[in-house]
Amino acid sequence: MPSRTWAPPAPYDLARTLRVLRRGRGDPACRQEPDGTWWRTSRTPDGPVTLRISDRLDAVTGRLITGTAWGPGADWALEQLPALLGADDEPDVFRPRHWVVAAAHRKHGGLRLARTGLVMESLVPSVLEQRITTGSAHYAWRRLLNQFGEKPPGPAPEGMRIPPTAATWRMVPSWEWHRAGVDRSRAAAILRACSYAPRLEEAAAMALPEAMNRLQLIPGVGPWTAAETLQRTLGAPDALTLGDLHLPVQVSYALTGARGGTDEQMLQLLEPYAGQRHRAARLILLGGRLPNRRAHRAPHSRIAHL
Hints:
The protein is an alpha+beta fold.
């Protein structure tokens, strides 16, 4: 039962850092317990792993975060643990340019960008989130993992699953995609990505522009999906989500008070944050100065083929 301990900087918000990796409260691959303990299951290059992340205060050394791992991928997961917790992130280089961003930066100074080092575990659920509501995408993820995922090693909580291998994803029958609410185009994009999974995983070692290009070689994976994936895989502070229905509206309202907004307008507003645009957008969302989403309600929350 190998483990590794990491002393986080101050301030540090473990829940806010890891929550972006959880696809809804019922995610079979990522769970937060009431006591603050996190459980993650992953399929690493060395095999499946169950990772438990606990947070405690030591009287001598101060705050410590400990990862304990089970399974063939345990050593790999523990080697990557600091990066997963945001140790490679550099929030101190961020400079707020608007009062709403500055206020959110002060309030959420413990936010760090997690880096998983894994592509497919974020790419598949990101494709599932195209063109539908978040709740529907989370349902599809839960249903598919419960049916085709693998029981994790170690003492993982009941109901957790290891995400399927690329080969297993490719064997999912068409009717099971349909029952999970996944249309033909999204299922086809996932199957195409699984056919090139080893080449896509190479993006975890690339700079952001090269990684974005690599993922978008797959038909059905566009700027939206690539950015959503690499925000988690690389912990990339500049991986701004383009093609989202709500984000340009939220950014425009928060920074200017104007309703409405396009990707082009959002890029102009966030130009002072070049290199940190994803972090700026996350802080804007955390800041809470957002328009009434009922005024911008649409049947789908994502734009097609993104």
